[in-house]
């Protein structure tokens, strides 16, 4: 081959090669592709808290086009398992982290900030055609749900004289749910203490459909899901045995949950960002967005915002990167208020 031809061939081959090398890293990956790929923030946990996080994530992604937020619903317990295995950045929780879960995180080197974001009540619901159970006492709920009731308390007439001799069909949260943990502790008196012969699910929509389609059913889940499905369900008021100046049984509402008179089934709900994840600016921006622009969204999706003073204390806690839990060694439905816990 002529030397001039060799030179021209070399030029044809070399230029595309140089262009490719400039566009790619040493491993052959495209730098353009790498810079355009969105950063991802991973959240998982409570199905109760998920609608809030999803609403905040949607608005955050509109304002930060280069960031994607994924939200899973493994239940509070399942979410903490993933979190303590370093699989997620944020854990959604409908109850405080337990000492066992906190220890598992500590052993894995996972530090976190506990951030209350809203209030929620646990609603007890029946079918709209249920004409007898307009209210129920905590003692009656315990008799219905405690482990000793399994296979024995099977009819409404066994709960209260005068209620019909009809089967009870129970629906409730799954064992990985923070709602299950909170309900069993508040009603039965011990976390995880529950009869097992009921229809359980970490998906609250399953409970909505089950109770809404069965006149003999009773179930429980977060109050926000009742508000979204109130045309299919009937609320049951709760009598906690405390005389509230003759007010009698109390139904959950934004007011009674926020002021704590809906006892013992009112609670704060949380997000737990991982401390080391906050080294990534996008994660810090998301939590800051949650605690500022996200607040109006909380009521929109059916939850009860904290007070302005409580949010100020929460922001201060986050700004100071105060790690750990406010609830260690203290049961989550004691008379100590969230404001008192935050200020300690």
CATH class of the largest domain: Alpha Beta
Strand content: 15-25%
What is the name of the CATH topology of the largest domain? D-Maltodextrin-Binding Protein, domain 2
Rg (C-alpha, Å): 26 Å
- How many β-strands, per DSSP? 11
Structural class: alpha/beta
Shape: elongated
| CATH homology superfamily name of the largest domain | Periplasmic binding protein-like II
Sheet with the most strands? 9 strands, mixed
- The end-to-end distance, rounded to whole angstroms, is 86 Å
Mean pLDDT: 87
Order of helices and strands: HHEHEHEHEEHEHEHEHEEHEHHHH
Number of helices: 14
Low-confidence stretches: 1-35
> How many independent structural domains?
3
As a percent range, the share of helical residues equals 25-40%
CATH architecture of the largest domain: 3-Layer(aba) Sandwich
Structural features, described:
This protein has 344 residues and is α/β, with parallel strands linked by helices. Helices cover 38% and strands 17% of the residues. The chain folds into three domains: 3-32; 33-119 and 268-343, Periplasmic binding protein-like II (D-Maltodextrin-Binding Protein, domain 2, 3-Layer(aba) Sandwich), CATH 3.40.190; 121-258, D-Maltodextrin-Binding Protein, domain 2, CATH 3.40.190. It has helices spanning 3-23, 31-36, 50-63, 76-84, 99-107, 138-145, 178-188, 204-212, 223-228, 254-258, 281-290, 295-300, 308-319, 338-343, and strands at 39-45, 67-71, 90-93, 115-126, 135-137, 169-173, 199-201, 217-222, 234-235, 237-239, 266-273. The strands form two sheets. Strands 1, 2, 3, 4, 6, 7, 8, 9 and 11 form a nine-stranded mixed sheet that branches. It has a two-stranded parallel ribbon with strand order 5-10.
């Amino acid at each position: 081959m002529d030397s001039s031809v060799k030179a021209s061939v070399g030029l044809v081959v070399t230029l595309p090669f140089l262009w490719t090398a400039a566009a790619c890293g040493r491993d052959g990956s495209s730098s353009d592709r790498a810079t355009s790929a969105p950063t991802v923030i991973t959240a998982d946990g409570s199905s109760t808290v998920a609608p809030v996080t999803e609403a905040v994530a949607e608005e955050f992604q509109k304002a930060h086009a280069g960031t994607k937020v994924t939200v899973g619903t493994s239940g509070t317990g399942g979410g903490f398992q993933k979190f303590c295995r370093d699989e997620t950045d944020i854990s959604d929780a409908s109850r405080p982290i337990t000492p066992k879960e906190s220890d598992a995180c500590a052993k894995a080197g996972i530090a976190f900030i506990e951030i209350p974001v809203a209030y929620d009540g646990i609603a007890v619901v029946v079918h709209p055609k249920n004409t007898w159970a307009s209210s129920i006492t905590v003692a009656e709920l315990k008799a219905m749900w405690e482990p000793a009731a399994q296979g024995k308390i099977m009819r409404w007439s066994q709960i209260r004289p005068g209620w019909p001799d009809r089967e009870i069909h129970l629906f409730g949260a799954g064992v990985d749910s923070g709602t299950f943990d909170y309900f069993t502790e508040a009603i039965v008196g011990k976390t995880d203490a529950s009869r097992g012969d009921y229809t359980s699910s970490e998906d609250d929509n399953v409970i909505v459909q089950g109770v809404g389609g069965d006149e003999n059913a009773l179930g429980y889940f977060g109050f926000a899901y009742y508000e979204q499905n109130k045309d299919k369900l009937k609320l049951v008021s709760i009598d906690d045995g405390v005389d509230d100046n003759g007010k009698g049984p109390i139904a959950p509402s934004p007011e009674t949950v926020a002021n704590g008179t809906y006892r013992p089934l009112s609670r704060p709900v949380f997000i737990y960002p991982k401390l080391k994840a906050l080294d990534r600016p996008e994660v810090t921006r998301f939590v800051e967005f949650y605690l500022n622009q996200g607040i109006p969204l909380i009521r929109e999706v059916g939850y009860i915002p904290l007070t302005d003073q409580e949010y100020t204390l929460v922001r201060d806690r986050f700004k100071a990167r105060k790690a750990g839990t406010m609830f260690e060694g203290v049961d989550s439905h004691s008379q100590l208020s969230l404001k008192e816990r935050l200020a300690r």
